Amino acid sequence: MATTKITVKSNGSIRIEGDFEICDLEGRVFGLGGRTGVSLCRCGHSKDKPFCDGSHKLVGFQSDIVARELPPPAPPAPPVPIKPPVG
Ligand code: FES
Fold first, then answer.
1. How far apart are the first and last CA of the chain?
2. Cα(26) to centroid(ligand 1), Å
3. How many domains is the chain built from?
4. What is the CATH number of the domain that holds 27?
5. For the segment 17-50, what is each residue's pLDDT rounded down to a tens digit?
6. Residues 71-75: what's their mean pLDDT?
7. What is the model's pTM?
8. Are strands 14-18 and 37-40 parallel, antiparallel or unpaired?
């Protein structure tokens, strides 16, 4: 069983619980103050991104989520042949 649980809430945030870390693009880790669960904004309206501040309720964010199977990933593209220099 996974040690991290991610729950995508309908009309709301993404809840992450368990053993995880959240980093910025440069790999700097957010300090979570000892929390073992946080909610990330999915609506784009939080004033505390990437965390949810409840603004999704004020803006009426709607997105129903039901778990589903994804199709298999596309196969990797074949290598592009390199043309020899002309001349
Ligand atoms: S999902 Fe909660 S503020 Fe965006």
1. 60
2. 24
3. 1
4. 3.40.5.90
5. 999 999 999 999 999 999 999 999 999 999 999 9
6. 96
7. 0.83
8. antiparallel
Answer yes or no: is 76 within a domain: no
What's the pLDDT at 22?
97
6 phi and psi angles, rounded to 5 deg:
-115, 120
Amino acid making up residue 70? L
By most ligand atoms within 8 Å of CB, the mutation choice from 42, 49, 62 for ligand 1 is 42
Identity of residue 25? L
CA-wise closest residue to 18 among 38, 41, 37, 39: 37
The boundaries of the domain holding residue 14 are: 1-64
Task: Evaluate whether 9 touches 15 at the Cβ level (below 8 Å).
Answer: yes
> Per-residue pLDDT for 76 more than 80?
yes
Q: Give the residues surrounding ligand 1 with Cβ less than 6 Å away.
A: 12-13, 41-43, 45-46, 52-56
